Amino acid sequence: MSMTSGAPGIADRIRNATLAQRVTSAAEAVKYIEPGDTVAISGFASGGTPKVSIPALADRIREVRAGGSDFTINLLTGASVSTETEQLLSEVEGIALRMPYQSEPTARSRINNGQMDYVDIHLSHVAQQVWQGYYGHVDVAIVEVAGITENGELIPSASIGNNKTWLDVADKIILEVNSWVPAELEGIHDVYYGTALPPNRKPIQITRADDRIGQPTYRVDPAKVVAVIETHARDAASPLTEPDAVSQAIAGHVLDFFDYEVRAGRMPADTLLPLQAGIGNVANAVLGGLDRGGYQNLTCYSEVLQDSMLALIKDGTVAHASSTSLALSEAGIEEFVANIDVYRNHITLRPQEISNHPEVVRRLGVIAMNGMLEADIYGNVNSTHVMGTKIMNGIGGSGDFTRNGYVSMFLSPSTARNGAISAIVPMVPHVDHSEHDTQVIVTEFGLADLRGLSPRRRARVIIDKCAHPDYRPLLNDYLERAEALPDAGQTPHILGEAFSFHQRFQETGSMRG
Amino acid sequence: MSMTSGAPGIADRIRNATLAQRVTSAAEAVKYIEPGDTVAISGFASGGTPKVSIPALADRIREVRAGGSDFTINLLTGASVSTETEQLLSEVEGIALRMPYQSEPTARSRINNGQMDYVDIHLSHVAQQVWQGYYGHVDVAIVEVAGITENGELIPSASIGNNKTWLDVADKIILEVNSWVPAELEGIHDVYYGTALPPNRKPIQITRADDRIGQPTYRVDPAKVVAVIETHARDAASPLTEPDAVSQAIAGHVLDFFDYEVRAGRMPADTLLPLQAGIGNVANAVLGGLDRGGYQNLTCYSEVLQDSMLALIKDGTVAHASSTSLALSEAGIEEFVANIDVYRNHITLRPQEISNHPEVVRRLGVIAMNGMLEADIYGNVNSTHVMGTKIMNGIGGSGDFTRNGYVSMFLSPSTARNGAISAIVPMVPHVDHSEHDTQVIVTEFGLADLRGLSPRRRARVIIDKCAHPDYRPLLNDYLERAEALPDAGQTPHILGEAFSFHQRFQETGSMRG
Lengths: 513, 513
Hints:
Radius of gyration of chain A: 24 Å
Largest sheet of chain A: 8 strands, mixed
Helix content of chain A: 25-40%
Structural class of chain A: alpha/beta
Mean pLDDT of chain A: 95
Oligomer: homodimer
Distance between the termini of chain A: 66 Å
Number of helices of chain A: 19
Number of strands of chain A: 23
């Protein structure tokens, strides 16, 4: 089966004699995947998705279907995977069930049309639920690695996600050994083998963002490895634009809030507490703004590491960042590779069940900062469903951090679509984070600190601080009329008008009407 | 200041000479409470509420107000407290802000009328948020104890709740030493002093429901104790009725589910995993049904311990129950006191930040079973707001256990008010537990296993298994028309009709119309 490969440096990457015998082509490898299989692949955000198996699998699905047979798989991943991967498999209508996250238009469209089942769960729950058997048997795992050690262990690539679990539970394993991944990445990973199902669970002994409790490699049963594919392919890049004025205004409010918390004695002055920030330009702007805050030795305990983190590490603002994935832009990838000797000492990549683990997030006192689609006047947050029905991406890790964080914040521009959509509405038509969990909401207009406030007080603060001025009269009018109802209740609403903003948008193209 | 008391056995209960000097009357003690104070009192469910300070405080508030001055306090507790307590302080309009839970009609009415601020938060968050200062300074703590040891430590009574925190953070402390509490209760408590604010948190080393990590007493700075009151007063009893046919049918489905999980290899056959059950008749019926399931050495990791648990302990079905409170009926109190030498070896009472701690709940793999007001067809659950606006009780610990449990279940009769209200609706007008967290819904008609299902599949299972047959056609009609909309989305809804059940109820007195 062994094939000669033109990939540079690949001989150094497959150092185990047994597994070297399994080298084959992607086209051959994907023959191990059968219609109806549950296939679990590597990848979390843009980092670490398999590069060549998926195009080959899409070809195989197309061919089988041309022969008159159906061919769909259930696809499990870490979170989102590369756009190309999601798109190829969606276009050939190859996915019956998708779990746990996606962010790609073709897949999204099929999900919203009812053509693809999508199960949108907290990222910290994925490994546990697969072990529990909620997604049936995992037939095949496809995992990208940076190399194979002499004793047959696997060196992870740019994300870990659920790879440890996929390798443990799958019947058959296809490895993509990618020699493009810098060899210096070896040692940056901390793969924890101490998780278990109850009643056999033990405390996870992490008390600082830079604690290491695992090993740098994945274990794998060589008997399960049916194919090894050699590649030399760049990671997909995460899109990133320069922070605009809105993102910078949001970042400014967040940084002021940190100062306020420090003065109140709730956070250490220099180091704050470990930061978590979701993916996107707003998060990137907040992190970028830390450079100007006089901080040093900050830490991050997050699920992704974006470009802004590299600059913070380089100038000493951030001492250590824990994550499960590198999600860098083209420029970020260049910078990371060029200075990997610096970065590797300040970054730890972990399995997502650890990067997002409720136990660790609560213990460390993580400052959770996530984006949202919209919040209502009482602090309920919709992160996932446009107009309450159409999935955007998924809840991802936002609930893992929000529910267990020390301070839980949601950041968003006050409007979308040139002002036609308000991010503050009377009632959100889908709740991903409840009023019990949301503590701070920030838009470019201000920061609403909801801690310790009853619902009616929250409503006034959210409208006054966060809503776009154009929408404040509409929101105040709703609130006042709801409060004036006989028997208005703890959380006043007019049920017949609760979604009036959304209905107006559906009818007129603007929530303004 | 020392007074002679008629309370039997009281001399044995106050064994510390310094604190014995502080014995006074309730009327004198509450003079330490000033208008505007934040007052934190003991009590979680029916167990351990102060018995005589609150009536005296209500009198003081009435007197001060008769003199022309206003007098309100902010009232912090463990969870609900005795009905009398809540009622007395609400009737004199003595509470400005209430946190974190209540279940009493007078207080509820004032909250829903906008006359009292109520902050409804997860019970595991209370201690942390008070330490963080979200509720300002705690001026006075009133804590019932069973006794004071020679070295000045305090023996807890029938609940712990947040008492450890109240004693630590309050400026002034009033102790009620209640000689009615059986002396044999000493040693049943496990008060953990290892919690801290980040960055100083350590793992909580509990790996089994019966692990003890603390000490049997509260510590207290004697200089802060301004008054000690002697009482000999029974705990309030929790109301309890015999399980009806509906509760028994729900219990039957739950027990069948446990069998199914055991056969699937997801739970140990004899011992299952630690059980948590909310307060109420349904939970009591489920626990009572375990007696007939062939189980032995079960454990419970819960926040309350109800009557049904006593029988399970007595016959060996349950080996150990961890809780923060005893919430027993009159008959349960009699049984507990009469056989306390048996029960004390099988029960551990903990602070609620530990009984409900996300870290421990996740590690142990707790089976979470909580009641609800209603669920929608996609699995979002409303636990708190009647018709979306009027608070019933509060979220309590339901989120602590649901969010981190191994299997998260909600149990409810399929209808309320003689069928006029359906517990399954198109969309819940308030979400306390999102679709991402709800795994199983049970009514007397059946059990909906939502694990691994996309929203549209969940909807069919919930309607078919759980909805009352009278409501199934209405629900199916809504779902089918929502799915038929162009661009129906991942989670189809007709926004203009999403609350049609609730609006029909408001207009006609029945969701049937």
